[in-house]
Specification:
alpha/beta; 15 strands
Length: 253
């Protein structure tokens, strides 16, 4: 996960997210290291799933938008993901919607037994496949690189056939007035479908998203059984949400 990266690995990934590719020679000169050392770093990052090595350098394994979102609010996102796993019991069947925060949930399921994950996220799959005790069902559908997600009629049909105890969904922004919003209309339909087929639906969103409004409306906040966020909400925002009856859970709180 991002918090397990070394400082040098972070620098390499930063360059990838900005430039779209990295050169062994340029990195060696900038970091004042041998090309052998840089190639070793690239090999490790490829094994971790962050990049694909190519002749003379490397390219990101993930879309640039995903890499950029993974770089910000990492501490908050990891805290939220850890708190989310505390809601999961052995033997649970859960749905995880595509997103950089929701995807991290799969990385913290070590120690849980007989968990069945239903997801439209290829990022969740890349994390969950490392745990032999997790059963994974992919929804299928049309692949969207910018969100590492599967969407469309096939994904919705799969979700519509299943029932789970917990669904973890994300958002591009949330406010009391507009509720949950997103920039991808197809993603909104996925969230609605998961909500309809879960006993409990949890919105996982870092506090920086409060007050942001995306292109497409998803659901009102009152449709969520709980909002799992970090401790960064302002006192005014928290009071506003609590007064409206929104169940707020703060990671680490």
């Amino acid at each position: 996960m991002i918090t397990e990266l070394t400082e040098r690995e972070r620098v390499i990934l930063d360059r990838l997210s900005v430039d779209g590719s990295v050169s062994v020679g340029i990195l060696a000169r900038e970091l004042e290291l041998s090309e052998v050392t840089i190639r070793g770093d690239l090999k490790v990052l490829e094994e971790k799933g962050w990049l694909n090595r190519k002749w003379g350098g490397a390219a990101p394994a993930l879309h640039r938008d995903i890499l950029e979102r993974q770089r910000i609010y990492t501490e908050q996102k990891n805290a939220i993901a850890r708190a989310a796993t505390e809601l999961i019991r052995d033997g649970d069947v859960i749905m995880i919607e595509a997103g950089t925060t929701t995807a991290l949930i799969a990385r913290y399921l070590t120690g849980k037994r007989d968990i069945h994950i239903v997801t439209n996220s290829t990022l969740v799959f890349s994390y969950a496949r490392m745990h032999p005790n997790l059963l994974i069902t992919m929804t299928g559908g049309e692949f969207r690189r910018a969100t590492e997600s599967l969407v469309g009629p096939i994904a919705l049909e799969t979700i519509g056939r299943l029932n789970v105890r917990l669904a973890f969904v994300g958002t591009d922004g949330f406010t009391l007035e507009r509720g949950m919003t997103t920039h991808l209309m197809e993603g909104a339909e996925i969230v609605k479908a998961m909500k309809s087929h879960a006993q409990t639906t949890v919105l996982t969103a870092d506090s920086s998203k409060y007050g942001r409004v995306g292109f497409s409306n998803v659901l009102p906040l009152s449709a969520m059984d709980m909002v799992l966020t970090d401790g960064g909400l302002s006192g005014e925002a928290e009071a506003e949400l609590l007064e409206a009856g929104i169940n707020i859970i703060k990671a680490g709180g």
